[in-house]
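Subject: sequence -> structure tokens, single chain

Hey, anyone have a minute? Need the predicted structure for the following. Not urgent.
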Amino acid sequence: MAENNKTLKRKAAEAGGWMLAKRIGKSIPYVGTAMAIGFIGYDIKRKGVVKGIINSGLDAIPFVGMGKNIIEYFTGDLLPDKKVSETKR
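Reply:
Had a minute. Here:
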């Protein structure tokens, strides 16, 4: 079996990489929530007040929002956009 002689630099880089990956992984739900809060105005404009708030609220919940977005990727919007008249376009 080949010897596994890692240098100190290599060991430190691997340990630092794993620590960084863990830290980024823990912050992902918070980043998604912040993005959902930032898009509230856009959702309200596109879907209407009630549907926009519901859509943003579901997106802001970390794992519920992820599940909703995965479902919407395959099926389309769960809460459809409001109808826009031809004169407004």
